[in-house]
Amino acid sequence: MNVKSAGRLAVLLVLLGIVLYPLIWMLGTSFKSQTEILSNSSAWPQAWTPGNYSEGWTHFDVSMGRFFFNSALVSLLTVVGNALSCLLAAYAFARLRFRARRLWFAVMIGTLLLPSHVLIVPQFILFRTFDWVGGPFPYMPLLVPQFLATEAFFVFLMVQFMRGIPRELDEAAKIDGCSPYGVFRHVILPLSRPALVTTAIFSFIWTWNDFFRQLVYLSDLDKYTVPVALTLFIDSTGQSAVGPMFAMSVLSLLPVFLFFVAFQRMLVEGINTSGLKG
Amino acid sequence: MASTTTTRPRPGPDRPKAGVSAHRRGLRPDRTREGLAGYIFLSPWLLGLMGITAIPMLMSLYLSFTDYDILSTWSEIEWVGLANYRRMFGDDPSYWHAVQVTATFALIAVPLKLAAALGVALLLNRERRGVGLFRGLFYLPSLLGGSVALAIVWLNIFNRDGAFNGFLGLFGIEGEPWANDPDWALETLMVLAIWQFGAPMVIFLAGLKQVPTELYEAASVDGAGPVRKFLSITLPMLSPVIFFNLVLETINGFQGFTSAFVLSGGTGGPVDSTLMYTLNLYIKGFTDYEMGYASAMAWVFLVFIGVITVVLFSTGRFWVHYSDGDDNS
Membrane spanning segments where (chain B) (predicted)? Predict the structure, then answer.
């Protein structure tokens, strides 16, 4: 039995090594000099050089800092938009009785599986007629949909969460004279914090990593977000900028990684409590 | 609000009863107030549904019958009937090529990804200590893998001088520039997709926790071996989760864009070997500006995704086992 479990652990460790190797290799390569990148394909640099980071940061006419700022702006506003608009819609679906509620709910579920690629052409045309594409604030096409609860996944997630909040709390608040708005403000909003946190984390990560829509809508270099800017490295170079490209790739993943570290703690805690039982 | 509207009209018989009607009159303002509040809370979503989803969908349906390109004004748009669809199905070899590439990708990458997810989940499910850490670290690629950064890394891992050939070199094998070889570029993308098996794995693990241990104990008493237990208990009990993952991953698989774009520099190359459907759509719509044609492609894609979902759901009846039935003792 002991041999068996040791064998299993060994298999898991080997698998984990394979799975994590690309990430380690990326990190290592970002510290290699240009000549070493071509000669040394292992993950470990023979000589650690931070030069790729400073070189990559100023590689384009616009500093990388600008792209990070743009990405952060889009991601944070998306978080706000999703959290607000999806919470409002979810409250209506989960708690209020109104005409055609079942129909709208079915429609919302239907949009869950709607591929975003299907809508990109007409949305582009529509936003272009509003002069939002390439306008003074070119992030409008990226942000407006997020403030209109179009991310059905989060609406659904919050509806499911709110169904778990005891209805007695609503009833008590109503007896105390709360209107539907009061119930939302004083009962549902404060109790929905866990669902809001989950929504915030996922919408930040997804937006930070999103490429397709940002590629379609952003055309001015100084308005680019990090993913769109990273593709410039591929276009612009032969082998000469591989190091800076890797360095900036590492930096671009850093916010997501930090979220992961914070999120991971929650995961492990969840496992620890269930581990006690089984 | 009109006082005659009640949110729940009931059949006639209890209408005339005075008591009920009085009772209702008492409730009515509340009900309409709640109904109004419902629509107020729903209004951003409704606006989004109309403006961001429904109207663009109808627009794209209309445009798919036109020759619209981004430069023409609305008055210059010409109705071309089914020409776009005829071109797609009749004389656009690149379209069929893209369909083939996408189908190959999904048919190979999705099952392998799910198999990897289930395999590692089974191993982890037996583990007692460090499960949380393992689970988190296996999940990490799912979080990072869809990004441009990882696609860039992948391109370089499978380059001539990349890590993969470095690894093969240890065994004296001389590798190819995989990512630039038309015969291997799509496989490179598949490996990137499979590498992200962590997300379905986490879902499998949660599913495995739900399987009652009594079933395994009973099976042990009956002398069942591990393979038998897996086939007769684990797989059937896990089938709803497998189904959920299958639907999700298949739909995701058909939509792969970022990695194909980065690997091929936005062209679908080398020699169209990574021309995924969505990449082809992007090229037609936003590089060639044939937006009418791209709209037609988008609608066929939507119908196709719909058909796949329906097919998955209808076959699911035959192999998905829901334990609230009474056939497990």
Answer: 36-65, 95-124, 136-157, 188-208, 229-248, 291-313
Confidence of residue A74 (pLDDT cuts 50, 70, 90): very high
Q: How much of chain A, in percent, has pLDDT values that exceed 70?
A: 93
CATH ID of A50-277, from 3.40.50.300, 3.30.70.100, 1.10.3720.10, 3.20.20.70: 1.10.3720.10
Smallest Cβ distance to B38: which of A96, A118, A144? A96
How much is the pTM? 0.87
Inter-chain contact B136–A267, Cβ cutoff 8 Å?
yes
Q: How far apart are CA B46 and CA B39, in angstroms?
A: 9
A211 contacts: CB under 8 Å, gap ≥ 6: A227, A228, B147, B148, B257, B258, B261
Domains along chain B with CATH numbers: 12-63 (no CATH), 84-319 (1.10.3720.10)
Nearest 10 degrees: Cα torsion B104, B106, B108, B112 = 170
Chain B contact probe: residue of A26, A82, A91, A118 with most B CBs at under 10 A: A118
> What CA–CA distance (Å, rounded) separates A227 from A150?
22
